[in-house]
Design a protein that fits this description.
Blueprint: H1 3-17, E1 22-23, E2 26-27, E3 33-35, H2 44-52, E4 58-59, E5 63-64, H3 65-69, H4 73-77, E6 88-93, H5 97-108, E7 114-119, H6 124-127, H7 139-152, E8 158-163, H8 173-182, E9 188-191, H9 206-212, E10 221-224, H10 230-240, E11 244-247, H11 257-267, H12 276-294, H13 296-310, H14 318-326, H15 330-343
Parallel strand pairs: 3-11, 4-6, 5-6, 6-7, 7-8, 8-9, 9-10, 10-11
Antiparallel strand pairs: 1-2
């Protein structure tokens, strides 16, 4: 292949797979990977680690507008942002347009890079009261909320994260995406499941692709759902042409997924996985920062969900996992992590 042909082919692929876009003042200089907002996961400590490993856009945990307008301290604290983690969006949820607008104004005081409206959380206690994915049963109310929030924060871009629809018989995302765009949002993230699916079965990206390829749509479309490997990220990007990919559960205990996906997208070569020493150091660091931010007890408890993934693949690991998730003393947990590092020091992750 001549240099000219190679150059033209490379240029075509770059134009096909990534056209630089902005969300407000946020500019992405490579194909962007977003960390999905997750309750009790995407706190300051975890966001910082994902940023270290190449996440291009971060979000807070989702924040209840009703609690925020009542100035509940725990809720207000969730909005804390560090300059080192930016760009970061504050995600809010609720079903009252007035309270959502007020919550957005409170969030705007912290100068987030964007404000995201959660229209996709499927958890029963949220969705059944009309919040999160519950709004998929009332798209008119969803549009009212979006318009109220957009009007309340004219200097900050507003985005939405949602799902395909409430159930198999109401996959409304294609026409709904147009309405959301017309209401003023600057980007749309879509999870490829309905609310009734929760996280079961496989995510269906077909309708995400239809939204992206709808000639009426001009805002960035971010695809989400089941991206748990570099190969899957490349497949979803190439097949559906989404502007960015959002990774959620696959980042829990595996924050280096952003680095491995970026390297694979850029080179086509799978990079080696972090060795055991790096995983031990990272687990210790996350435990410490989580406790510093959330307090010893809560920080320690919320770290427990990460251990299995940090050390996934180690043979006969169950006894260590049980010790890590039942031990209440941080110093002992650190010694257990040191022990893991010593016992499995010759193990090679595949």
């Amino acid at each position: 292949m001549s240099f000219d042909v190679f150059f033209k082919k490379s240029l075509f692929l770059c134009e096909k797979f990534f056209q630089m876009f902005t969300i407000g003042d946020i500019k992405f200089n490579r194909y962007p990977l977003f960390l999905a907002p997750m309750e009790d996961v995407t706190d300051v400590s975890f966001r910082h680690i994902c940023k270290m490993y190449g996440a291009d856009m971060l979000y807070t945990e989702f924040i209840a507008s009703e609690a925020l307008v009542r100035n509940i301290d725990k809720t207000v604290k969730k909005m804390h942002l560090e300059d080192s983690e930016r760009p970061t969006g504050i995600q809010i949820y609720g079903h009252d347009p007035v309270h959502m607008a007020e919550a957005a104004q409170m969030a705007a005081e912290l100068k987030p890079d964007l404000i995201d409206i959660n229209c996709g959380c499927p958890v029963k206690k949220i969705a059944t009261r009309g919040d999160g994915a519950g709004l998929l049963q009332n798209p008119d109310l969803m549009i009212q909320i979006v318009k109220a929030v957009v009007a309340a924060v004219p200097n900050i871009p507003v985005t939405v994260k949602t799902r395909l629809g409430w159930d198999e018989n109401s996959k409304i995302i294609v026409p709904l995406a147009e309405r959301l765009q017309d209401a003023g949002i600057k980007a749309l993230a879509i999870h490829g499941r309905t609310r009734m699916q929760l996280y079961k079965g496989e995510a269906d990206w077909t309708l995400i692709g239809e939204v992206k390829n709808n000639p009426r749509m001009h805002i960035p479309i971010i695809g989400n759902g089941d991206v748990d490997s570099p190969q899957k990220a490349a497949e979803m990007r190439n097949r559906y042409g989404v502007d960015a990919i959002m990774i959620g559960r696959a980042a829990v205990g595996c924050p280096w997924i952003f680095k491995t996906v970026h390297e694979y997208l850029e080179t086509g070569v799978l990079p080696p996985k972090p060795d055991l020493a790096e995983r031990v150091r990272l687990a210790k660091y996350q435990l410490e920062t989580s406790m510093n931010w959330k307090g010893d007890i809560r920080g320690l408890l919320e770290m427990r969900r990460h251990y299995s993934q940090y050390f996934k693949g180690l043979p006969d690991f169950k006894p260590y996992r049980m010790r890590l998730v039942t031990e209440p003393d941080p110093a002992v947990i650190n010694s257990i992590l040191d022990e893991i590092g010593e016992v499995y020091k010759d193990y090679q992750f595949e």
